[in-house]
Structure formats: structure tokens, C-alpha cells
Recover the amino acids of this structure.
């Protein structure tokens, strides 16, 4: 048994904040932000449940499925609406689902973790046949809009995928996961507070961790970096993506990126990149697709699948 992705959906809130908008309220510039991060604009004002619901509804529609046909919901999010219930319960209600639903928080590395969680559930005897996997984050709600070292980087958005059992297509070839909790102090957000980050340290550690993780995953799968057709890296910083590709030997043009228009949308960034790859016609059966996530923890995770 395998589990192939049969529907994708995305949602970005309407309100756009450009680099020039930021430069009007803090000491920064479009040139500085673009050259350091590759970001040109970001969306703000989103709510996690509402964005997740919109992206999920689009993915279900693309898969041709109604609410009663979804057997499980996994919602990856860093910005839950409440301490409880889980935000997935609110999304399930909005979509009319009555199946199992859970939140999963591995911050910006969430989506690859969510993918193997969904895949593993589907392999369980009597487990779900169709899983809705969503990444949704309202990072604008935890950004300090007076802190130029973080405000420039983050944005809101959601991306969703429907996984369905299939006899052969959509094989998970290999994965690698890890966390180094000693590095929690370099990127964190206390309850009720705003994001705190040592940018340079995060940059260095993230490149190292995600590159190593991808190498381990490729080794497990018996693949060379150049075998990969589509690379979907977490969209934190274009320079991190370039450094990762350079280190591993992945041609940069195999990566699909949305960061210029979205900034770092945490759990939503990989499914947003996946939808961009789909729109470009890059996701065809048998293509080798890599998802590579990293984020606060420091946590990392990479997965390679045969589409
Ligand atoms: N505009 C203009 N100048 C800024 C600025 C901004 N928005 N933010 C910081 N600066 C200044 C600093 O104050 C510093 O000035 P100084 O040399 O006079 O002290 C200078 O620019 C360099 O700062 P530094 O933090 O070393 O810059 P950098 O090249 O490392 O770029 C980041 C900063 C945040 C873009 C970069 O470190 C980064 O992207 N790190 C990873 C963050 C990340 O991806 N987090 C999420 C992980 S999931």
C-alpha cells in the first residue's frame, strides 16, 4: 500500500505588507530585506482555523471528496487558536468532518512530520483511507512588529493536501527526523509573547541540520541529490535554500519557492511550495519529490517520496 496526494489547496489572507511598508515603520529597506532573505512581501491578518479551512476545502474539492469521505485530519500549526480544544477540532467543525483530528506542532518543520504521521496512520490495520493534511500558521500574530530582526521574515498562510490509499503510487521512500533541544534558546516564543531569535546562529545551524538530514534521507533511499526532480524546502530564507542546495549538490532550479511573496509561513510553507510545483506542472507520477523542513527546536525533518 502507498498513499498518494490527490488534492492540494492553498490560502493566503488578503492583506499584503511589502518591504516598503515595513521600511515606513522601522529602520530597514526593501534592498536589505531582499538581499538578506529573498523576501519581497508577506500576508498578514490571517486566523489559523479559517485559513486551514479554506485551504483544506480547496484540496478536498481538487480530490473530488466530500466531508464524509475524509477519515482523519492532521493540522500542523505553530499558532493554535486556543490552548484547547485543538485547532483541528475547529477546522473539522467548519469543514463538517466527524473523523479523528489532531494538531501537530513542530513549528517550521511541521509538514514533513505531518506527512509521515498521516502516512503511518494509513498503514495501520483498519486505519484511515483518506487523510487531510494541513499546515496553517498566523505568524503575524506572534511577530513583534517593532523588532526589525524578526518582523521582516514572517507571514500568514495555509496549505493542504489530501492523501489517499493507492496500490502503488505515492510511495514514501525514506525519511529522517531530529531535534536538538539545546538550541531552543536561539529561536522561541513564550506563551502569550512574541518571537525571539538569534538570526545569524539560526541561519548557520539550520543550514547544517537540514543539509545533513537531506543527505541521510537520500542515503537511506539510495538516491543521489541530482536524482531529485522536485525539491520543496521550508521557505525561511532564500539564502538558506541556496546554501543547502550548494552543500548537498542539488541544482537550485529543482527547488520550488514562494518565499518572495509569502515570507516564512512556518507549517504552511512546504505545502505552499508544493502547490507552486503543481501549478508549474512539476508533480507527475514517478517524479522524486523531497520535502525538507527545519525550525525552532532546533527541529528538522526530510522526506523523499515517489509522486
Ligand atoms: N534592516 C536593516 N538592518 C538590519 C535589519 C533589518 N531588518 N535587521 C538587522 N539589521 C542589522 C543588524 O542590526 C546588524 O547591524 P550591525 O552590524 O550594525 O550590528 C546587521 O544588520 C547585520 O545583522 P545580522 O543579524 O548579522 O544580519 P544577517 O545577515 O545574519 O541577516 C537574518 C539577518 C535574520 C535575515 C538572517 O540571520 C536569517 O535569516 N537568519 C535565519 C532566520 C530564520 O530563518 N528563522 C526562521 C527559521 S525557521
Amino acid at each position: 500500500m502507498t498513499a498518494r496526494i490527490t488534492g492540494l489547496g492553498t490560502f493566503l489572507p488578503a492583506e499584503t505588507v511589502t518591504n516598503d511598508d515595513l521600511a515606513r515603520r522601522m529602520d530597514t529597506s526593501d534592498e536589505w530585506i531582499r538581499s538578506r532573505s529573498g523576501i519581497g512581501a508577506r500576508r498578514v491578518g490571517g486566523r489559523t482555523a479559517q485559513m486551514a479551512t479554506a485551504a483544506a476545502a480547496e484540496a478536498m474539492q481538487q480530490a473530488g471528496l466530500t466531508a464524509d469521505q475524509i477519515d482523519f485530519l492532521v493540522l500542523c500549526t505553530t499558532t493554535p487558536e486556543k490552548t484547547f480544544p485543538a485547532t483541528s477540532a475547529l477546522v473539522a467543525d467548519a469543514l463538517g468532518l466527524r473523523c479523528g483530528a489532531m494538531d501537530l506542532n513542530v513549528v517550521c518543520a511541521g509538514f514533513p512530520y505531518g506527512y509521515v504521521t498521516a502516512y503511518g496512520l494509513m498503514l495501520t490495520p483498519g486505519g484511515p483511507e483518506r487523510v487531510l493534511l494541513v499546515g496553517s500558521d498566523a505568524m503575524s500574530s506572534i511577530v513583534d512588529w517593532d523588532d526589525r530582526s524578526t518582523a521582516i521574515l514572517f507571514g500568514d498562510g495555509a496549505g493542504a493536501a489530501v492523501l489517499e490509499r493507492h496500490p502503488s503510487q505515492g510511495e514514501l521512500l525514506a525519511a529522517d527526523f531530529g531535534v536538538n533541544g539545546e538550541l531552543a534558546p536561539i529561536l522561541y516564543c513564550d506563551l502569550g509573547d512574541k518571537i525571539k531569535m538569534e538570526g545569524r546562529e539560526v541561519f548557520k545551524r539550520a543550514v547544517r541540520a537540514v543539509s545533513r538530514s537531506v543527505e541521510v534521507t537520500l542515503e537511506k533511499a539510495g538516491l543521489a541529490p541530482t536524482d531529485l526532480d522536485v525539491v520543496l524546502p521550508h521557505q525561511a530564507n532564500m539564502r538558506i535554500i541556496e546554501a543547502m542546495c550548494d552543500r548537498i549538490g542539488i541544482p537550485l532550479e529543482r527547488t520550488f519557492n514562494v518565499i518572495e511573496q509569502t515570507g516564512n509561513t512556518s507549517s504552511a510553507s512546504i505545502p505552499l511550495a508544493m502547490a507552486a510545483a503543481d501549478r508549474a506542472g512539476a508533480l507527475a507520477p514517478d517524479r522524486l519529490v523531497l520535502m525538507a523542513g527545519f525550525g525552532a527546536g532546533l527541529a528538522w525533518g526530510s522526506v523523499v517520496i515517489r509522486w
